[in-house]
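Reposting from the mailing list since nobody answered there.

I have sequence plus structure tokens for a pair of proteins and want to know whether others read the tokens the same way I do. The first protein:
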Amino acid sequence: LWPLSQTPLRLLLDSGLDLATSNKVTRVSIAPDLIEVELYDKTRFTSGTLTLVFNRGKYELRQWTVRDEQDLETLVVLYNVETGNQLSGDLFKIDYSLVTNMQRERQLRE
């Protein structure tokens, strides 16, 4: 398990990322109903791509794909999106002791 800050997914969480000017954008595809933007990211631990797919009419994010340096993909598709709702911060807490080796986590922090 890698910290998000060491994966291409960190780009999705970067509020300062400007897709129009970023040198991380490697490809843009425009279709009648969607826009696909591919970004490449290299960190100290890994490299990979993040592909964002937006609805062309409203520019809403519809899906993303993370492809790691081993060419493995993780695809997330968004549907039935509700906006304006308050969510508990507890929904985003992960008990890493349940999903990872604690010694490996300590080594990554060093």
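The second protein, same order (residues first, tokens after):
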Amino acid sequence: KFNPLNAMITTGIAEIGLSGSLYFYIKNHLKIKYKLFSKINLIYFLLSILFIPISLIVRGFSLEFWLTMIIIVFTCIFLYVGVLFVIKDENLVLIINKVLGKLGVKIWKN
């Protein structure tokens, strides 16, 4: 029977299966060293967990649906990118340097 709980469970199972198969493919076929559990992955996970209370707080203001969604999305984006900027995340630095490099500007040296 289709209901929200079953949808969440099946989505979770599918995500775990996909992530597992991608991990083994990267490790065994592409021969790339990749740590599933690392400090930076923990930071990414903890930052993404903060999206839940942020969305609950914004939804508590009882605003119009689309305004609520826009506020949630932009607040989460600013939080996530802001923290990564403050800790000088290696991937964010690479992206920023690639984008701004086209303009001839460099923020950080790699």
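Reply #1 (J.P.):
I read it the same way you do. The CA atoms of residues 97 and 106 lie 6 Å apart.
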